[in-house]
Design a protein that fits this description.
By secondary structure, this protein is mainly beta. It is 3% helix and 43% strand. The longest helix has 7 residues, at 344-350. The mean pLDDT is 94.
């Protein structure tokens, strides 16, 4: 695997006046899919080939959810995985993925899920954060996998009989930072999270991508896209695939899409986690492309920026995921505002906390563009 180094020169080449931007939407456009709750990062169950997996006339979707708190920023400390069935016309609430205290950690963060080839089971990869009974702002992050039986009754799917969660990969403190300290301040939180399962069909290899922090970096901005490969029934750490040392602290929710024989690796990041004094890119979706898995990566659009939030609404949406049909899912963050509100009440009023309007990409080799809505 030939790693890609995301350089300050790439980001410096982004021109605000000409960069691709998603269309504006307002807070009321965001879907309210779970009454009384904020819902943010969400992802569909995919097949082992990376395709969307149809289930009962729709898709099984797993999301992060939390009761609406006075300050929406506090949702991360109580996040739980939640299950939905998304049809062309509605979202059906299927309840928490895990029963109370049935998962490791004090809360759960993002991951990915795949359906078995026979369609009878779902394998879930997720991030467990903190520990049971520990203070809520312990940022220790661990990657787990577990499997449930998929059942459909009267057209309604459910997941049952979860296997005991198994920690699938651990930071080694040599390549991947194992100290998750930093206190959670902007640009300081370290990472070992967001597992995404991917199969390289050409070599019949299973890979796990994740958001991580480089252990030997010279800079405190040490974000990388990490990787592990399945070898002899174990996940074995591999060198980072994308490195942003000295540039950016968090390359979040990395994922892979195969399109017309090309391999596209995407991630999300926010303007606030670029190194100070810069250069600083916008909050948006970024990515690289290669002719095959393991071939040299090239930055999409020359800079790695696929698209940004609108300039007048820089926190409109986040946590972007490109799906195999080139639709792009994200959650509505704080649409319609220019700067982050300074107090919790204002943040509460501005935060949408639901699925954002779905976008669609066009990919052509190294170039990416948003399709008109």
């Amino acid at each position: 695997m030939i790693p890609f180094t995301w350089l300050p020169s790439h980001v410096a080449a982004i021109r605000p006046e000409s960069m691709p931007m998603s269309p504006l939407f307002d807070r009321e456009t965001a879907s309210d899919v779970l009454s009384g709750h904020d819902v943010w990062d969400h992802w569909p169950v995919l097949s082992t080939t990376g395709a969307l997996a149809p289930v009962a006339g729709g898709q099984l979707v797993i999301a992060l959810a939390a009761p609406r708190l006075p300050d929406p920023d506090d949702r991360h400390a109580i996040a739980r995985l939640w299950l939905f069935h998304r049809s062309p016309t509605s979202w059906r609430d299927l309840g928490p993925v895990f029963a109370d205290d049935a998962a490791p950690g004090s809360r759960q963060w993002s991951g990915s899920a795949i359906i078995s080839d026979a369609g009878e089971a779902v394998r879930l990869f997720f991030t467990a954060v903190g520990g049971c009974g520990e203070p809520p702002f312990n940022f220790a992050q661990r990657l787990f996998e577990t499997t449930a039986q998929l059942r459909i009754s009267d057209g309604v799917p459910s997941l049952a009989d979860w296997s005991a969660p198994i920690e699938c990969a651990r930071p080694d403190g040599l390549v991947y930072q194992s100290d998750m300290g930093g206190g959670g301040a902007i640009g300081t939180i370290k990472a070992f999270r967001d597992p995404f399962w991917f199969r390289d069909a050409d070599r019949d290899e299973d890979w796990l991508l994740f958001t991580a922090s480089d252990a030997g970096a010279h800079s405190s901005w040490n974000g990388v896209v990490g990787a592990a490969k399945r070898i002899d029934d174990a996940w074995v750490l591999q060198p980072p695939i994308v490195s942003a040392i000295g540039l950016n602290n968090e390359l979040e929710r990395p994922h892979v899409v195969i399109h017309r024989g090309q391999v596209y690796l995407f991630w999300s990041t926010q303007a606030k986690v670029f190194a100070n004094p810069g250069p600083r890119g916008p909050t948006g979706l970024y990515g690289v492309v290669a002719d095959s898995w393991g071939a040299p990566w090239r930055p999409i659009n020359g800079t790695a920026l696929v698209f940004a939030n609108p300039g007048i609404a820089p926190t409109q949406a986040y946590s972007f995921q490109v799906l195999p049909n080139l639709t792009v899912w994200s959650f509505a963050d704080m649409p319609g505002i220019w700067t982050l509100p300074p107090d919790p009440a204002a943040r509460r009023a501005a935060f949408a906390g639901g699925p954002a309007p779905v976008l669609r990409l066009a990919l052509d080799g190294d170039r990416a563009a948003l399709m008109p809505s």
